[in-house]
Amino acid sequence: MFTSLRARLLVWYSLLLAAIVAAFAALVLFGVWQARVGDIDRDLQRRTDTLVESLEPSEAGTFDLTLPSPETTEAPDYHAVWDDRGHLIDQDDAPDTSVPASEGFAFTIRGREQVSRTPAGAVVLVGRDLSDVRQELWSLAGTMGAIAAGALLLALVGGWWLTGRALAPVEAISQTAQLMSGGDFAARIPLDRVETEVEQLARALNEAFDRLYDSLQRQQRFAADASHELRTPLATLTTEVNWALRRPRTPDEYQASLRSSQRAAARMQRCVEQLLQLARADAPGDPTPAEPCSMDALAAEVACGLEPLARNRDVQLHVEAAPVRVWADPGRLGEALNNLVANAIHYNVDHGQVWIRVRALPDAAEVEVRDTGVGIAADHLPQLFDRFYRVDAARTAGPGGAGLGLAVARAIVERLGGTLSVISTPGEGSAFTMTIPLGTAPATPPPGTQDAVPGAS
Ligand code: ADP
Q: Using an 8 Å Cβ cutoff, are 435 and 419 in contact?
């Protein structure tokens, strides 16, 4: 019936309060009633004693009753006295003149009565009409009921206000959620309007919103960067094709145009491949085929593959590799290492040097790629591994790529649970270090690798 939490809280709170007030009123009324009955019983006892003392057995076998002068009291009392044979000796306003069956105090329809038997056998009944006491209690109950109703009303109004105040943060949270679902991703829960208990929840939600917003912005930036990166070679390709088709050209002109188109296509292909690698590394469910991968062999293979480039750039490559094996996909790990070494060659100086060092740590393999190149200024280091980040952002052609090489390397290394870090001194060179945990064999190792033990080769 009550769908709102506020109304439901209020109903429960009111019912509880009403029950407490009713119990309290009942206790007060019972206490007052008990006190009145106690007073009445003492009065009845006193009057019984007076009547018993006034009864004198006479010589004729009956009793003489000499009542003292009546007290001036407004109490609706009555009494009756019988002799030992059950004959009524005296009565005053008694409702019934038959001898009572039992002795002691008792409640009757009319009121409270005490019946006593004297040593000589006479029976004395004294009674008190309780209608005035009942009247008094009813009026007390009425007064208490009115006060309780007033208090309940006040509590209801106060409770409505208090529950509204207590639930205001929930309202603020739902308003923010509505704003966000309406497209305002910068909306946050105002923390000044929430109570301490809800503050933690609001903070956690705000942090989650921050992360969501951040990841959304990164996605938007990523899409914009990717399209921007592909736009230049696509424009080159379109221009070259249009130029070649506009009118007949000489064979040399065609060749030059085709070479330019080839470079643009290669650049696009490289960018799309790297995007694919990143997407694979990001995909949570993408299974990485792990096999024993000899890091020293991998370093030698990468160095061998890049030797022509190094020669071309007049850079010397050195490999110092200790034998160490990790469980990984050699293809992807080779790609990561290749990116680091290619960068070390690209961003080197003439007659420069590049060292690839592989070390075996107790539970990991460490690969350092050190160069004597141009180095990287400290303010670029924090964003260096970001996607599409280039130190020289204006450069679109030249040795470098789309600014994805380091991002791909880091994604691959982190996917294996490793780390990739850099230290660099401008003008002196850079050192990139990746640390790959040795890892463990997958549940079902690839065929032919059963006996391989990573960490030693
Ligand atoms: P790119 O494909 O443009 O080389 P990367 O992600 O591989 O992109 O590198 C990002 C930027 O980091 C490059 O633009 C380059 O300026 C800088 N960089 C990477 N490696 C080195 C290095 N060994 N020495 C100097 N600068 C480097």
A: yes
φ and ψ of 444, to 5 deg: -115, 100
Tokens 């050209």, located at residue = 249
**In a domain? residue 455:** no
Query: Same domain for 159 and 102?
Result: yes
Torsion of CA 125, 129, 133, 135, to 10 degrees: 160
Q: Hey, CA dihedral for 407, 409, 414, 419, is it positive or negative?
A: negative
What gap in Å lies between CA 399 and CA 390, rounded to an integer? 12
Q: How many domains does the chain have?
A: 3
pLDDT in tens, 370-385: 999 999 999 999 999 9
Atom of ligand 1 nearest to the CA of 274: 2
- In this structure, is residue 418 part of a structural domain? yes
At residue 224, φ and ψ (nearest 5 deg) are -65, -45
238 plus 217 within the same structural domain: yes
Is 36 inside any structural domain?
yes
Q: What are phi and psi for residue 65, nearest 5 degrees?
A: -115, 115
Mean pLDDT, rounded, for 242-255: 93
274 and 291 fall within a common domain? no
Same domain? For 310 and 418 the reply is yes
Index of the ligand 1 atom closest to the CA of residue 432: 23
Quick: pLDDT tens for 128-182.
Answer: 999 899 999 999 999 999 999 999 899 889 988 988 888 888 888 888 888 888 8
Q: Which residues line ligand 1 (CB under 6 A)?
A: 339, 343-344, 347, 371, 373-376, 384, 389-392, 400-407, 430
Nearest-angstrom CA–CA distance, 83 and 67: 16
Ligand 1 midpoint to CA 35 (Å): 96
Structural domain contains residue 443: no
Question: In which domain, by residue range, is 353 found?
Answer: 287-437
What is the CA 395 to chain-centroid distance, rounded?
46
